[in-house]
Design a protein that fits this description.
By secondary structure, the protein is an alpha/beta fold. The chain has helices at 18-29, 41-51, 65-72, 97-125, 146-166, 187-190, 193-200, 211-222; strands at residues 9-12, 33-38, 55-59, 79-82, 128-133, 171-178, 233-236. Strand 5 (128-133), helix 5 and strand 6 form a beta-alpha-beta unit.
Length: 243
């Protein structure tokens, strides 16, 4: 079954590389016009070349207040994929204030502010879908990831609260919660045999998520096929959190 998003306008943050790029391409492949947000013009230019005319680049930083004004000012917004985020694994006792503040700003505050701006646009038009990028770490704990787990648990709570509040306005809010996704950024981590074994031992299906696994789930959740799904989080984790 081909899911059609023809005529819809989507916005994807962190769209220049990795997971966000795959999501932008998948949404465009389903027919949506995709406002693709990243800080690096070269990444957006190559995305436009790959994805074609339905990709609409927007050079912006999700930490800047001006970006939220741009989102709210969009003439139309049917889908937000709140994807931008980051991590810096380290022991809890070694986390410095700069790392803590930056990750909380990127993974929680910018997610909230972007969703808030999108919600204002969607409430005004009486419809819309917000997909927050969470993680399996929003359901469990893990060594060296205290700040990341904290932030993704917050995203899960935000998704539920927004879904309840915005439902009367015709706006759905969901999240996706992937396991480790194989991207150029994570590949070096899996070159470490101890880390690779740690991860694979916890995934019953014994494989990592691909960017396509996550992108396909986002397209489904953003589509009319998921029309009664709100306040939920879809785990794409090979069974990690089922144990």
């Amino acid at each position: 079954m081909r899911i059609s998003l023809d005529g819809q306008v989507a916005l994807v943050t962190g769209a220049g590389r990795g997971l966000g790029r795959a999501i932008a391409l998948a949404l465009a492949g389903a027919g949506a016009e995709v406002v693709s947000v990243a800080r690096t013009p070269a990444d957006l230019n190559s995305l436009r070349e790959e994805g074609g005319a339905l990709i609409r680049p927007m050079v912006a930083d999700v930490l800047d207040a001006s970006f939220y004004a741009q989102v709210e000012a969009l003439e139309r917004l049917d889908i937000l994929v709140n994807n931008a985020g980051g991590n810096k694994p380290m022991p809890m006792v070694d986390v410095d204030d700069e790392t803590l503040d930056r990750l909380l700003a990127l993974n929680i505050r910018s997610v909230y502010k972007t969703a808030q701006a999108a919600a204002r646009r969607m409430v005004a038009q009486g419809s819309g879908v917000i997909v927050n990028m969470s993680s399996q770490m929003g359901r469990v704990g893990s060594p060296r990831r205290t700040v990341y787990c904290l932030s993704k648990h917050a995203v899960e709570g935000l998704t539920k609260a927004m879904a309840v509040e915005l439902a009367p306005n015709g706006v759905r809010v969901v999240s996706v919660a992937p396991t480790f996704v194989l991207t150029p950024m994570t590949e070096p981590m899996f070159a470490n045999p101890d880390f690779s074994a740690f991860v694979m031992d916890r995934i019953p299906m014994k494989k990592l998520a691909s960017v396509e696994d996550v992108a396909n789930a986002v397209v489904f959740l953003a589509s009319p096929a998921a029309g009664l799904i709100t306040g939920e989080s879809l785990a794409i984790d090979g069974g990690w959190t089922a144990q």
